[in-house]
Write a structure and sequence with these properties.
Length: 199
């Protein structure tokens, strides 16, 4: 019986490891980092990192902490699918398993809606605090953005032109500098899509 439980546990760890590895690879590539760049940043070898990204080894918690800090995500991001049914993992994200990104202090809290980062786009729920605004955001590499405002008010400033959005309004733009502002007294909530994934 112990042997069967151990085999099942090892299979689950391998499955989790492959998703963690693919997330690390997607975030590394979105930042145009090589294996060597990331390995140097966390004090590991490129060979070790390659095994992690391919799901053939498991990173230690301290390694994940360093990687999470480097990519500005919470370490819980890497465990968002660990409690999921095997059939759902990589396909469905339950509300309670969403990964928070960002902090309230910055005026923007996001939740990753995409089950993985290995696809061609990512879906995010963005909550903009009342009266919060961003500085100009310059894409680090070619990206396409789109989305729809679900509630509240949101202004998007795209290439210097201001657009005021109301609930139900949608947007799409590519390779442009942008900024956002919530001019209202209540949070603004939007579904935001980015291609390729940046988290």
């Amino acid at each position: 019986m112990y042997l069967i439980i151990n085999i099942v546990q090892k299979c689950k760890e391998k499955a989790l490891g492959s998703y963690v590895g693919s997330d690390i690879r997607a975030m590394r590539r979105s930042r145009r980092m090589t294996l060597q760049n990331l390995a140097d940043a966390i004090g590991r070898s490129p060979g070790w990192l390659s095994l992690i990204e391919r799901g053939q080894a498991q990173p230690a918690i301290n390694d994940l902490r360093q990687i999470a800090a480097l990519f500005d995500v919470n370490i819980s991001f890497f465990f968002r699918s660990s409690g999921q049914d095997d059939q759902e993992r990589g396909l469905v994200v339950r509300r309670q398993d969403r990964s928070p990104l960002g902090t309230p202090e910055g005026g923007l809290v996001e939740e990753l809606l995409s089950p993985t980062l290995s696809g061609s786009f990512e879906m995010i729920q963005s909550t903009f605090a009342p009266r919060a605004r961003s500085e100009a955001i310059k894409p680090l590499h070619p990206t396409e953005h789109g989305g729809v405002l679900l509630s509240g008010e949101l202004a998007l400033i795209i290439d210097g032109v201001r657009f005021s959005l109301a609930p139900g309004d949608s947007f799409q733009f590519q390779n442009k500098d942008y900024a956002w502002e919530n001019p209202g007294d209540v949070p603004a909530i939007a579904i935001w899509i980015v291609a390729p994934p940046i988290y």
